Amino acid sequence: xxxxxxxxxxxxxxxxxxxxxxxxxxxxxxxxxxxxxxxxxxxxxxxxxxxxxxxxxxxxx
Length: 61
Hints:
Blueprint: E1 9-11, E2 26-28, H1 30-37, H2 42-58
């Protein structure tokens, strides 16, 4: 799977743990998820794809 086929999640985050929402979105890539999870496994690929499909339905805008 190439990078162009991997979903990128755009999120609205806060400035700090108790702060206001940031004015701009942040991007979370598959490579960010691998760093958090610890390794690129089949479950991470499947979960990332499932989230990309679900988020399009749950948050169409």
